[in-house]
Amino acid sequence: MPGPDAEGPRVARLRRELVAELGGNLDPQRQSLGALIHHYLVRARRLIPTAKRRVFFVRRFWDGNLVTRHLDTVFAMARLIEEGADLTPYLSSRAHRPGKHPRDAQHDGDFGLAAYDVHHLHFDPVDPVGPRKTRQKDREDAMLFATFGREDAAFIMVGTHKSFHDGTLENAVVQARADAGHMVLKGIKGESGFTALQRTKMGLRGLNAAVAIGGEAVISSMVMGNGSSMRTLRMADFAAWRIQDVDPILDDIERARALLGPRVPDDPDFAWAFDRTRLVLVETKSRMGFNFADQPD
Predict the structure, then answer these.
(1) pLDDT tens string 225-248
(2) How does 15-29 read in b/e, with b if 16+ C-beta sit within 10 Å?
(3) 140-167 core/surface letters (b: 16 or more CB in 10 A; e: else)
(4) Which of 104, 179, 247, 274 has the smallest number of CB atoms closer than 10 Å to its CB?
(5) How far apart are CA 95 and CA 58, in angstroms?
(6) Low-confidence ranges of the chain (pLDDT < 50)
C-alpha cells in the first residue's frame, strides 16, 4: 500500500480529518491509512447510529433469570429503538469520552462489541457531565445486550457487567447464532470440551473457539491476539483497499463516469469521508454521494 507521500490530495485530506476526529497525538504521516481508519472505526462502532429499527427477540431471550424482573424496562427500550430515539445516553459512559479510560486500549474499550458484535445498553441513562444517575441505586446493575443492524435490532439477553466475564453473554450469543444459522460452520464439528466460562476466558486473551451445537461448529469470540475486533480490522482494511483502488480513477473523468455514472460533472471535486462506519465518496459540486460497503461480503 502506498505511503503518505505517494497518496493524492483526497487521501491526504481524509488523513487530516481522521486525525482531527480522533484527537490526541496521532501523526498522520506515521500511520498507515488502514491504521488511521481502524482507530476511527473502533470509536465509531461503539456508538449506535440513530435510526428506526425493527426489534426482534432471540428465541432464548425470555429464558434469562433477570428478564422477568425488568419486563417494563425491556419493552420501553424496544419502543425507543422502534421510534428511532438516540440511544447514546444508554451506552457506557466510556463511549461518551473515548480514550479517557485506562482500559480503553483493551478489547477496543468494549469486550462484548469486540468479541461478539454485541452492544450493551444500561437501563438508566448517563449523565453527560457526571456518573450514571442511578447506578448506586440499582444494585442489580441490569443491562440489555443486543445487536444492531441498519434496519433491525436483536435483543440477546438481559444481564449485568458480570455477564462479560462469567460466560453467560458468550453462551447467549452462540445459542442465538445457532438458532438463527448465523456464523455456523456447516459440515464442521466444533469443540465441546470447553465451557462457556472457559471460552470467555480464552476470548479475553485473544484465543478464539467454535463450540459444537447441534453437531455443527458455531463461532464464538472473534478477537485478535491483542484483543481487538477482527471485524473492525477487516472493515478498516477493506475501506483502505477501496480508497487506494478507486482514488486514482477519479482523476480520469471518463473512468470516473464509467464507475460512478454519467451525472458526474465535467470538473468534479471528490472527497472521501465516513458516514459513521460506512465509507462514502462525495462529489461536492453536485452534492452526490456514493456508498462504498463498510466491509466485504
Answers:
(1) 777 899 999 999 999 999 999 999
(2) bebbbeebeeebebe
(3) eebbbbbbbeeeebbbbbbbbeebbebb
(4) 179
(5) 26
(6) 99-104, 133-136, 138, 297
